[in-house]
Amino acid sequence: MRRLALILGVVLALCNAATLAATDVNRSCDAAPDCRVIVKNTAGRVQVQSWDQNRVELKGTLGEDVTGLEFTGGDKTVTMEVVVPHRHGRRIASTLTVSVPAGASVEVEAVSADVKVTGVSGEVSAASVSGDVVVEKAANAVRASSVSGDVEVSATGPSVTAKTTSGNVNVSGEIGAVQADSVSGSVDISGTAQNVSSETISGDVTVTGTVAEFKTKTVSGDVSADRTTEKAEASSVSGNIEVKAGPLAAGAFSTESGDVEYSGDLAESGKLRASARSGSIFVRIPENPAAAFEASTLSGRIQNAFGPAPEKPVGAGSRLRFGPTGATAQVSLETMSGDIVLERK
After folding, report:
1. What pLDDT is stored for residue 314 in this prediction?
2. Taking the mean position of all CA atoms in its chain, how far away is CA 137?
3. Position 157 confidence tier, pLDDT thresholds 50, 70, 90
4. How far apart are alpha carbons 101 and 50 in whole angstroms?
5. Are the CB atoms for 21 and 40 separated by under 8 Å?
6. Residue 101: is the preceding peptide bond cis (ω within 30°)?
7. I need a labelling partner for 187 at 20 to 30 A (CA). Which of 73, 85, 284, 323 fits?
8. 345 membership: H or E segment, kind and range
9. H or E segment and range at residue 97
C-alpha cells in the first residue's frame, strides 16, 4: 500500500510539474489590413510574421511564474502583454509567435528576450534590453534597438534607425536614410542608401554599397566605404579611414592615429580635405586633375605622381602647392607624422 501511494505521489508531482512548466496559449481576432499590433514580453522570445489574412493570431507558451496574458483585440489596434508578478522568479521565459496582416504596423517591447519581425510592410518598432533584435524584409520605416544584443535589419523603405549599446549592428537593403550606432560593437551597412550616419565608440564602421551621403564617427575603430557618390565625412581617434567615391562633391576625413586612404573622382567644384596627426595620407585620383592642391607634412615625405616636386622647408617635413589657374576643385592634405602620397587612379 505504501509503495502504491508513493508511486501515485510521484506521478501526481510529475503531472503538476509538467502543467506548471508550460502553459500553451492560443488567441486570435479579426483586424484591419493596416492595423497596429503591440506585443510586450519580459523574457523569452517574440516572433512576429506576416500572412495573407486580416486577422491577428497569437500562439505560444508562457513561463511557469507568469501571471497570465492580456490580449485585447480590435479592428485597428491589437495588444498583447505577458504579465509577470512584481517579485518573480527566473521561470518567466515565454515564447510568442504572432501572425499579423502584411500591412500591419508592429511595436515590440522586450526586456530579456530576443525579437524577430519578418515581412511587415507597415512601420516597425522593435526593442529589447537584453536580447537580439532582427527585422527582416521590412517595407517601411524601421526603429530597432537593444541595450545588450545585436541588431540586424533588412529593409526596403524610407528609413532605418538601428542602435545598440553592447553589440553589433547590421543594416542592408534599399533605404532612404540610415542611422546606425553602437557603443561597443561594429556597424555594417550594405545595399543602397541616400544618406548614412553612423557612430561607434569601440568598433569598425563598414559601408558596402552605393551611398549618396555618408557621415561617420568612431573613437576606436576603422572606417571603410566603397561607393560614396556625393558627400563623405569620416573621423576616428584611433583607426584607419578608407573611402572610395566619386564624383565627390565634398569629402572630409581625419584621424588622430591611423592612415587615410581616398580613391575616386572629384566633382568639378569638389573639395577634399584629409588630415592625420600620426599616420600617412594616400590619395588616388584620375590623371591631370583640374584641382588646386595643398599638402604638408611635419615629419614625413610627399610623393607626387602629377609632376611638381615638394618644397623642403627647414626641418624634416615637406610642403607642396600646385594646380591650374582658376581651378574650382580643391584638395587639402595635412599630417603631423607621416607621408603624403598622390597617385594616378
Report:
1. 53
2. 15
3. very high
4. 6
5. no
6. no
7. 284
8. none
9. strand 94-101
**41: nearest Cα among 101, 152, 131, 104:** 131
Mean pLDDT across 84-93: 77
pTM, two decimals, is: 0.89
pLDDT tens digit string along 269-318? 999 999 999 999 999 998 766 889 999 999 899 999 987 888 776 566 78
Q: What is the mean pLDDT of the chain?
A: 91
Per residue in 119-150, pLDDT tens? 999 999 999 999 999 999 999 999 999 999 99
Q: What is the CA radius of gyration of the chain?
A: 28
Find, among 163, 255, 162, 176, the residue nearest to 212 by Cα: 176
* Contacts for 129-136: CB closer than 8 Å, 24+ residues apart: 132/167
Mean pLDDT score, 185-197: 97
Helix (H), strand (E) at residue 323: none
SS3 319: strand
Dist. CA 118–CA 125, nearest whole Å: 12
CA nearest neighbour of 133 among 121, 119, 122, 147: 147
Rounded CA gap, 43 and 73, in Å? Answer: 23
- Coil/strand/helix, residue 5: helix
Predicted confidence (pLDDT) per residue in 44-61, tens digit: 999 999 999 999 999 999
pLDDT at 226: 92
Write the DSSP assignment of 101-150 as a string of letters: ETT-EEEEEEEEEEEEEES--S-EEEEESSS-EEEEEE-S-EEEEEEES-
Q: How far apart are CA 16 and CA 21, in angstroms?
A: 8
What is the SS3 assignment for 86? coil
| Helix, strand, or coil (residue 169) | strand
> What are 206's three cell numbers?
563598414
Q: Are 235 and 217 in contact (CB under 8 A)?
A: yes
Cell of 298: 611635419
Residue whose C-alpha cell reads 498583447 in the numeric block: 80
